[in-house]
Amino acid sequence: MSEHSLQIRILKGIDEQDLAREIFDEVWPSDDGTQITANLLQALVHNGTYVAGAFIEDEIIAAAFAFPGLDEKRHLHLHSHMAAVREPYRNQNIGTALKLHQKTWAIDHGYDTITWTFDPLVRRNSRINLLKLGVDVFDYFADFYGDLADGINNGDRTDRVMAHWSLKGEARLPIAADDIPVALSSENGKPIQHGATGASVLCYLPEDIVALRAVDPDLALEWRLALRNQLQPRLDNGWHIRGYTHDGAYVVTKTEKAK
Fold it and tell me: How far is CA 75 from CA 65, 70, 181, 249, in A?
């Protein structure tokens, strides 16, 4: 696929919005029938919601959906709720292209921040978010969405962290792991927790949590609870994830407001 063949545009009207709904339902198949109904999506779009599709020629291959939100300080931001790429087109920077299109749209509509949740165990997404996009992460939510009976999350705890993307920010380089104590390591594919102390700690991630869930759900759950145990207390007490290493670890650091 050449970069010039990819076209991203806002989807207008129910017929075009249904193309995005098809993407969401394909990526997150559910016994409930659909991720979002046509009438609700139309109402949201009519009142300032972002819905865009990525196309190659006339085929839609990805879609994204975001709506306005207010944080605890009543700061208006754009919250990106869904971004999905069809399986044959993944790992080709299409998700990143959607995010950059969303960034341009957000700036044009007066926003300076985009937020979204992501699974902190998914190494690929974490690397893109923290390095390529340069997000900050201050919040950990255990089982944020409850039970999700879809093809990706079924049977797993829906722990999420919240990305805060300053639209004036820049990409980051990986952080060297030298001399930073390790709070969570991977040994023979299993999570090992350590009593690390210091102003920064490293939390390593499994190689591929999605594949691991399919073949060993018990070990996947062990990773989920170990990472939760290391991240949630720290982020709840004023730490933040400030970066990522070359070899797949979060760099978690105290902030000035840390308790």
Answer: 20, 5, 35, 31
